[in-house]
Amino acid sequence: MTGSRYQVYLAALPEVCAADPALMAFTADADGRCEVFAWDATTGRARQVTDRPRGTLHGTIDRDANVWWFDEDAHGAGRWRFQPFRGGPDLPGLTSVPPGTPRGLAVSDDGTVAMGLGDGRTTTVHLGRRGGSAHEVTRVDRHATLSGITAAAGLLAISGPAGSAHAVTVLAADGTPRAVLSGAGEHGRLWSLGFAPTAARDELLLVREEDDRYLLASWRPETGIRTYPWCAFDSEITARWYPDGGEGEVGGEGEDKGRTVLIREDRHGRSTLHRARLDTGTLTRVPTPPGSLLDAAPRAGGDVHYLWTDTAHPPRMHSTAGTALPALGTVPGRVPGDHRDLWTPTPDGPVHTWLSLPEGTGFPEGHGLPEGQASEGQAPDVQAPDAQAPDAQAPENRASESRAPEGRGAPPPVVFLVHGGPADHDRDAYDGVVHSLVASGFAVARVNYRGSTGYGPRWRRAFGAGVGLTQVEDLVAVRADLIGRGLVRPDAVGLWGTSWGGYLALLALGTRPGLWQAGVAVKPVADGVAAYRTTTSALRALDERLYGGTPDDVPEAYARSSPIHYASHVRAPLLVVAATRDAKCPPGQVRGYLAALRAAGARHESMWLDSGHDGYEGGDHVAVLRRAVVFLDRELRGTRGGRGTRSERGTQNGPGTYGAYGPQRDPKTPPADRRGDSGRVRTTAAAGTGTAEHTERRTTHAEGHHPQRPA
After folding, report:
1. For residues 116 and 555, what is the distance between their CA atoms, to the nearest angstrom?
2. For tag attachment on the chain, is the N or C end more exposed, with fewer CB atoms within 10 Å?
3. Cα 439 to chain centroid, rounded
4. Is 707 exposed, middle or buried (0-12, 13-18, 19+ CB in 10 A)?
């Protein structure tokens, strides 16, 4: 696998120029790195805008067709820069601004630029004319994100933790607070999704969690928050304003123009689109194929761009109006394997799993759900298990009874690919790691354990057995279910997780050591206390919410849920991959865990990357993919790694995490995000409107995003 043998892509739609929707900016492969490109839909041509040694992830385009990107150093700190669409010098977005980490960018209709930057402790918002000097508007002593600017640049919106007393703060351009919207009261958490795309009114789009539902809402200076109870959903949603009212309609005169929004719901691992007309109170379904929509955005003239995929088909960009969109660097057609979903009882209800089996070892009649049957996201009526199951011994007892379904060959080894988050979920969507593993002869189980998004607020809050330990219970229950159905080998079960998923893999290996035969943990949380002391402020806040306090407040809770506490119990061979500049899952706490493994005599390997948590270089992803698949092949099938092993051949015949092998002439769209896995298709959230460009678009309105796995 050399640089010419693979392409990388980021599953995200291009950002569109509000004044000329044919002009777009997108991120794509450039010799194995993620870079920013300009795309002209009229000519169908792309131009590479950035060329940085470690790649570029954050990019957008403003109303005047300037392409923006974040020019960061190896530690993630930097400044915003821009370039005219047709080319020209690289210019500073604002002068006199110190470097920082990106916390949002917004550009108004008249070229006023607002940018949020963080320094690890505080968030600062700067304002100024594009390319001119900046002044500081506000500074807050916490992690926050600039989430919008009005078309006339009169108001700014800043988002804090959705469940905090400062979930959304609206400021005047001089920094004067105009409103502080709480997400900590009786009405539940609150998310900001951007200002309306018209200078005729100042209206901020919101999503509110209330009574275990998610409701659309909006805020205006003259009326405050207005909630739309007719627009309620039982799982996570995000929304964007239509730039011209929807379906090409003006939407009325004056302040009524543009009061239509496009809503995307992610429910039970699949997506649906809805059009909501706020003035008439009507909600209609927008037809899309069954599967997952990794991104969707309304465009001028009633056009809708969406990024569709399912487990068997890599992502494809679509335009309802037939607008030419840049291609993604993915394989064509259907990928191999037998892909289904199934449900397993747990004390809090059935847990949903996406199972992919190699060709010829698929589901017999009555095993799992037929493909597409759950397209509406309906869970089957599954009774909860009795108090004795699942427990630590049940899976091992059932393993001896496993047999291959009649008419099928021997069941394959299985790898549990554990998603990050915890506020995230696996979906009916293509995953390059799944493709590579299935092509190499492994079954793959992706479990939406308790705490995952996509199944309602109660499921997301279900941490009854403790942080991490509840999720391990679900992995154990699904393992027993798969073995009991005869779908996988009971003596060849592996775990592979990244970030929070890597944390769960380590915790499962230590707390249930007899159930697994191999483990891979990439950039994991390995020592909960040490990670808390050295991670980012945003993740410290997340830990405090999950555990109910700091390690000094609740030391027993942190110790009980920390993998390092169980390192001496690990029995399965383990591969740990870490990064030397990882700010989210810092390297020091991983080194401490590796030292504990050595002291216990546990068999393990380690691999270090010279990168941060969120890498933009395809070479790193492919290196991890190759190392992990060869490791799992050796440990689960007894194959000795080396040139020409089945695992390596399978990886080359099927794509790595980021797509097709073979020469590519046109830019293809690339990789890129402790709560997120670096290297896997992910969903973007509402990026704002056509009048204000936002680069925090890769975070959903809920707490997590839909990140990528490292390859």
Report:
1. 34
2. N
3. 24
4. buried
Burial class for 328, CB neighbours closer than 10 Å (0-12, 13-18, 19+): buried
> Which residue, among 128, 70, 136, has the nearest Cα to 101 in the 3D structure?
70
Q: In what order do the strands lie in the sheet with 101-107?
A: 101-107, 112-118, 123-129, 134-140
Q: How many residues does the structure list for the chain?
A: 711
At 435, which amino acid appears?
A: H
Give the pTM. Answer: 0.82
Adjacency order of strands within the sheet including 190-195: 190-195, 204-210, 213-220, 224-233
Q: Is 524 in contact with 497 (CB distance < 8 Å)?
A: yes
With residue 300 as reference, give the H or E element that holds it.
none
238 neighbors 701 (Cβ within 8 angstroms): yes
Tokens of 263: 């809503």
DSSP secondary structure string for all residues of 113-155: EEEEEE-SS-EEEEEEETTSBEEEEEEESS--EEEEE-TTS-E
Handedness of CA 419, 421, 425, 431 (dihedral sign): negative
Q: pLDDT tens digit string along 623-659? A: 999 999 999 999 999 864 433 333 333 332 332 222 2
- What average pLDDT score do residues 554-562 get? 97
Distance from C-alpha of 360 to C-alpha of 337, rounded to nearest angstrom: 8
Three-class secondary structure assignment of 451-518: CCCCCCHHHHCCCCCCCCHHHHHHHHHHHHHHHHCCCCCCCCEEEEEECHHHHHHHHHHHHCCCCCCE
Contact criterion met (CB below 8 Å) for 168 and 148: no
In eight-state DSSP terms, residue 574 is E
Using CA atoms, how far apart are residues 73 and 181, in angstroms rounded to an integer?
Answer: 35
Q: Which of 218, 176, 175, 213 is nearest to 196 (CA)?
A: 218
Q: Which long-range contacts (CB under 8 A, 24 or more apart) does 393-396 make?
A: 394/480, 395/476, 395/479, 395/480, 395/483, 395/515, 396/514, 396/515
Q: At what angle do helices 432-439 and 646-653 cross, to 10 degrees?
A: 130
Locus of tokens 């206390």: 529
How far CA 685 is from CA of 34, 497, 585, in Å, comes to 20, 24, 24
Q: Tokens 């969903």 identify what position?
A: 683
Query: How far is residue 291's CA from residue 375's CA, in Å, rounded to a whole number?
Result: 7
Each residue's pLDDT tens digit, 587-598:
999 999 999 999
pLDDT score at 313: 94
